[in-house]
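Apologies for my clumsy wording, but are you able to produce some protein sequence, whichever is easiest, and the tokens describing how it folds?
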Amino acid sequence: MKNWIKRQFRKKSRVYIFPTKMGGYLNGLIFLMFLLAIGYSNNLLLIFTVFLLGFNLIWLIQGHMHLQRLRLDQVNISPGHAGLPVQVNISWKNQPSQPRAWMIKLESLAGEFVWESFHEDDSTSEGQIIPSKRGVHFWDYLQVKSTKPYGLYQVWIFFPLKMQSLVYPGLLKSADVHLTGIDLEGDIVIDKKGAEDFRGLSSYQNDESRKISWKHYARTGQLLVKEGEDQKSATLELELNIPKDPQMKETYLSRLATQMVECHRREIPFSLTGAGIHQYPGTGPTHLHECLKVLALC
């Protein structure tokens, strides 16, 4: 019933208007002046009251028209972490030419309400929201509210969205993340079979990273390089083993998310396995997004 009532007051293109505190004082003053003019038969006061009432009506109409023609073009909500700012970009059509000082609100009938201030130019608004929990957030409406152009009336309008955004697990406050799993650094010696004392050697192929065996060059006059050393960078293997306790689960997912972000920052390849998931080692933004998406939907 509550959601049904909300929907009735969120019709597309319907503009709502209500006096501000200053507008309420003005309307009260006009009413008082009207009573005094009638009670004391003061024609001059009555004429002044009528003029003031006419201007008040003009200000009301202009306030209503400030958002009447406004149309929503596109809304883009970037993925982000719970408890941290998430970027929101909004583009408009038929925006008013008068000064704008809008209050913009993303609203969900599930009970999520987020207010933020937005930077605005001719056709776009940019701002940030701070989601409180991970997962998929469904946004039903976008509310735009303004007290322009005169500050006597507050006007607002709702735009249906029917869109969703992805929120990753929150990050741990501590920047010192102890990586676990397989951490291999340095050279791994691989004994490659060769003929007698030429084992582990091959012809030089203009590869600067390989070391030339000058001992064999002095003996044979051939440029040979050592194949017995193979460099392998550090990697991290993360295994998804979610605890059953809800509080421990969120802490566990946050720890994994922090490790992934830290690996991405330090360009350390990481993988994610478990629960039917197998993400091969990688370091790019796409790999990070896919792994964090798994955590967000757990």
Q: What stands out?
A: Confidence is low (pLDDT under 50) at residues 181-196. The chain has three domains: 1-168, 188-231, 236-296. Residues 43-68 form the longest helix (26 residues). The longest strand covers residues 153-168.
